[in-house]
Write a structure and sequence with these properties.
The chain is an all-alpha fold and 488 residues long. The protein has 13 helices and two strands, in the order αααααααααβαααβα. Strands 1-2 form a two-stranded parallel ribbon.
Length: 488
Amino acid sequence: MAPVEPDALAVREQLFHERVRECIICALLFASLYILCHFIITHFKKHTDFTGVHDDEDAAVNRIALGLCTFTLAVALGAVLLLPFSIISNEVLLSFPQNYYIQWLNGSLIHGLWNLVFLFSNMSLVFLMPFAYFFTESEGFAGSKKGIMARVYETSVVLLLLTLLVLGMVWVASAIVGNDAASRQSLYDLWEYYLPYLYSCISLFGVLLLLLCTPFGLSTMFTVTGKLLVKPRLLEDLDEQLSCTRFEEAAVSHRIHSGKTSCWLNLDMEMLQEQFFAIRSKRRKLELRHRASPWQRNLGYPLAMLGLLALTGISVLIVCFHVLELLLDDAAMPRGIQDASLGQVSFSIFGSFGAALQVVLIFYLMVSSVVGFYSSPLFTRLLPERQDTPLTKIIGNCVSLLVLSSALPVFSRTLGITRFDLLGDFGRFNWLGNFYIVFLYNMGFAGLTTLCLVKRVSWAVQAELIRAFGLHKLPLPVTRCRTCSKPC
């Protein structure tokens, strides 16, 4: 029995060192994300909210809320990187299975990261962000001594009442949906039932929001790319256009100066000034295009548009293929697993190239969803401004980005962008096992994305052909009403 005890001790010591190593790695990763998010938020926050000279209490409250927002944004960024990091780790372990320096990439670490992101997402959405908002709006109970602790007491009471209200609504909804004895018994389990059920509803809302924002964002990215890059023009002489614009700008400028010195000229100065500014803006754009190299003018924009078109088309093809899988194989459903079997098999039929393509598509869909979110009319006001974003708008942005990013793994797995199964509590959502919801979701994404893509490309080609042949300069026909002689 003597040799058994040292072996058991060695195993326990190895497990202890692995757990310490995982904690250190998770702490370093989160600290890096926190520092990055702190610089991002300080780039957009409004300085007057944090440098109060006459009211140090408000400035301290705003700094505490800013720390909570930074924590939430770090969790959101971690949720975005969660699935790509897992896919890359699996491919690295497949490529170098016996390498000593990458043995820390194991299933226990990946599974722990998924659990931490799920836990912190729940904390941020349910407790931290409501606390930050109520904390900034609180003033303390009437008659109590003013100070930060008075605000903490008021915020805690308001948050407790809100928590009871939300839990009561969830209890009633759960009792209506599940009327059996097992469902009623599970209603009394707060940690194992309430929070996963509540987060399941939030995740469903986030996935639906991604479904609406991503196709709109894909369409918007084509427009944004056209504004940022120099577009090639067919049948165009830049030198002639630039000389004509400069001559027109000089003529309007001369009319403005002559109108100021001549009393007999009855000129609308405001109209002339607006015309002058428009012509000057057009002249600057033409000069920018004229200074661009032929490679940048004729190669950069087409390559960028072809890249966007290829990524969008590949995404639609993958979703269509996944729809066929859903109809033929029940294993295509996005169910979660408990053990992460990393380093055994690639999650793409094309190997490392397919895994890299999956990572690119995941980031592309996330960026397009954020662009579509801020471009939609409902959420345009949330768009942050550099050094001029108030704290309440920062809180709203952090909540919105956390909802979108925490739903990204479920979104990617539901659409079949990746075959990496959902780990931890991400796969416990009830609606993931509903075939009709998953099927309709895939069909909706494919249909909306195809519609937006065809519409955007067809309009762009039509506008370019009209401009190339000079049809946009033709006068519009004037129609006359039959009942009167005035033009309509």
